[in-house]
Amino acid sequence: MFGIFDAFPDDDGRRTHLSGEVAEALGANTGVLFEEPTIEQLDVVAEKQPVQRSGT
Is the pTM of this model over 0.85? Predict the structure, then answer.
């Protein structure tokens, strides 16, 4: 089992990606590259920025 995580600045970017050439190529190879995939759309509700350390 594996997953692919893609992040987009907005819903338009997400929709464009999911209807693009890569999505079409993966869909055309369903059953060859992997079993029936599930696509789940998630929303990021919080994020944690890395700590900026000085002097390292």
Answer: no
